[in-house]
Amino acid sequence: MKNQKPILNVAVPTPQRQLFDYVIPDEFIKSDSTELFIPGCRVLIPFGNRNLIGLIVKISQSTDFDLKKLKPIKALIDKEPLVSKILFDFFIWSANYYHHPIGEALLKVFPGNLRKGLPLPKTTTRCWKIDKSYSSDNTKSVKQLDLLSLLNSVDHKTDEFLKACFGRSTISALAKKGLITEFQKSYTKEKVSFPKALKQNPKLLNDEQATVLSKLSIEKFSCSLIDGVTGSGKTEIYLQFAELILKNQRQVFILVPEINLVQQMEAQFSNRFDLEVLTFHSNMTDNQRLLNWTKAKNGEAHIIVGTRSSVFVPAFNLGLIIIDEEHDQSYKQQEGFRYSARDLAIQRASNDSIPVLLGSATPSLETIQNCIKNKYQHLYIKKRIGLSQPPKWNIIDLKNQSISNGISEFAETKIKETISNGKQALIFINRRGYAPALFCNSCGWVMDCANCDSKLTLHKAKQKLICHHCEFTANVPLKCLACDKDSLVPVGMGTERIEEYLKNIFPTIPVFRVDKDSSKKKDFMENLHRKVNGAEPCIIIGTQMMTKGHDFKNITLVLALDTDTQLFHPDFKNQERLGQLLTQVAGRGGRGQFLGEIYLQTYNSDHPLLEKLVKDNYGSFLQDISSEREVTLMPPFRHLALIRADSTHSDKVINFLKHVRSITNSIQPQNRSINYIGPLPSMLEKRAGRYRYLFQIRTKNRSQMHSLLTKLTHQMGTIKIPSSVRWFVDVDPVEL
Ligand SMILES: [Zn+2]
Ligand SMILES: [Zn+2]
């Protein structure tokens, strides 16, 4: 219906895949101020019997609904859009690309406080300066005199800084005497000037590093992969390239895959630059997160270091995005809005015409494929910096070894050797807890999770059996629940068990365990770094947490206990991931002046993929993986999307996906470039009481996929779906 009043198309946080139409209240029309309504502004809207916060996405002149039935919004919250138009369009593009319900996706990318309707915070900083008429005669306190003499030597200091150095009472006392004055300072758009902004001189680059840096352009969009072996000094290139961007008065975003890597990267940047380096991750209060978000938006933060969700943080004048450890699967959100922060960062950089830098010692297959297609620039660093040599690879064939607590005789000798040489050993096992199962020796019974297709892991320290998929927890039974015999034994290895065993063998040597359970304590990683870099002989037992980015100088032995589980895991990306994990964990060794060695324990010493890794390198290992994916028509040789569904009843979810398949077929029959597989069970078929199935769509080109999913999700919105069934689209999945 044509209409004089503009219609607001509003995104609302609901699972519905549509915008909702509202009208502008009469008072705005009468006062001729309808132009206040701009896409990107929040509005308070009546929705059913609730009031919700929504976002204006579009303003239309007509509506498909009866105009008289459209409700007016209750309030306009923002005077101007929360983010720039180009960024808001990027948010909408992201929701569409991943075929996620637009309202859920759009609101998800904003900090929680904005979703609740709170205003943007003031970002000025409370500062103190010395009163011009000050005289130190008015005080005798040493602390107060120290503070005065500090303020006398500089223009001002922040309240936060002074409080940390001198305490609140000192500040208050001086303020009361009128010797110091408070003011609010705004850092907005303050010019960055070099070399003043350098705290620390750049390190001298070696030839390879210098070549890489010279090939990076600050001017326009380009995606470059720095494919540099572990310990090759990629971070120094990040720092020096960032310096060029900062000199140009532009901001730099650095994404890391995990929270426990944020602090380390932040320290690198704040040690180098005397600029505002802020972090952004989920382990912050809502207020902190919104404050940093706002400072980035205003240009008060020069550098943002954060995890996945930072890809949606606004900027005043963004000049560079760096994705460290680009291969890491943590960049893909696995629940709800299933986006890949790496892929979106590249899209955002392209929209903004700025460079994006991917760094990894073990690039993902899809990134390598994009280099081969010349979409990305492939830059190599093949040597480690300084004197350190690449680690030596070896295999321990378990077929000829006696094994105790998961550690072969040979491996144990190696650990002893390392310790007696005063060096450090890293034991890698990607399983936390004591043992992955509790097993009855007499009847073969195993304690399963009540809600999942998985066994309960024994956690000895907590004296509990815990499901690692749904957190279901049970007490440890004293007798077998099937045959009532006293014959329950833990089978298999976890970090806790290895820790117990090694502490027994090496009672005088420190043994550190690094996993999700042990690292919950505040500053765990910092403390670990300090202790381990104290150079004493020690043993570190770690899960994949230990494979990422950590720089320990004195590890010379790396031992991978369980290579086989992942080698034969059927998920399509698992072998690639194994190669990445092993190469990364090997890279923790020999980073100082001593040679590092890695030993892989396996029953499959002649497996061609392991041979590639051990005798050749990760690059040639990846070529084998690549050939296999090409033959099996899997990514990156096909575009893959999944319709995932789950339900408390397996027949309901299977029937639902069969229906989805028939709809898909009616939209687009299979042909040489489009094919369908499923419904198939997910790798973990039952999880948290729900049966999980998926339907695979593979296409040769991206636009086929996008248009098919657009039509499919639209039609699925019109069919009746059993209430127990939930469904999601997963575009470019990293697991099945
Ligand atoms: Zn039994
Ligand atoms: Zn479970």
From TrEMBL:
Q: How does it assemble?
A: Component of the replication restart primosome.
Q: What Enzyme Commission number does this protein have?
A: 5.6.2.4
Residue sites binding Zn(2+) 2 per the record: C449, C452, C467, C470
Q: How is the cofactor bound?
A: Binds 2 zinc ions per subunit.
Keyword NAD attached: no
- Spell out the HAMAP family in the cross-references: PriA
Described by its record, this protein's role is as follows: Initiates the restart of stalled replication forks, which reloads the replicative helicase on sites other than the origin of replication. Recognizes and binds to abandoned replication forks and remodels them to uncover a helicase loading site. Promotes assembly of the primosome at these replication forks.
The name under which this protein is listed is: Replication restart protein PriA
> Is Mitochondrion one of the keywords UniProt gives this record?
no
What PROSITE patterns is this protein classified in?
Answer: HELICASE_ATP_BIND_1
User: Which Pfam families does the UniProt entry name for this protein?
Assistant: DEAD, PriA_3primeBD, PriA_C, Zn_ribbon_PriA
What residue intervals traverse the membrane? Answer: none
GO molecular-function annotation terms? Answer: 3'-5' DNA helicase activity; ATP binding; ATP hydrolysis activity; DNA binding; zinc ion binding
Q: Which residues bind Zn(2+) 1?
A: C440, C443, C480, C483
Q: Which NCBIfam families match?
A: priA (TIGR00595), PRK05580.1-4 (NF004067)
Q: What lineage is on file?
A: Bacteria, Pseudomonadati, Pseudomonadota, Gammaproteobacteria, Cellvibrionales
Please give the family membership noted in the entry: Belongs to the helicase family. PriA subfamily.
Pull one GO CC term from this UniProt entry: primosome complex
Q: Which UniProt keywords apply?
A: ATP-binding, DNA replication, DNA-binding, Helicase, Hydrolase, Isomerase, Metal-binding, Nucleotide-binding, Primosome, Zinc
Q: Which cofactor does it need?
A: Zn(2+)
Reaction catalysed by this chain?
Couples ATP hydrolysis with the unwinding of duplex DNA by translocating in the 3'-5' direction; ATP + H2O = ADP + phosphate + H(+)
GO biological process, any: double-strand break repair
The residues covered by the Helicase ATP-binding domain are 215-381
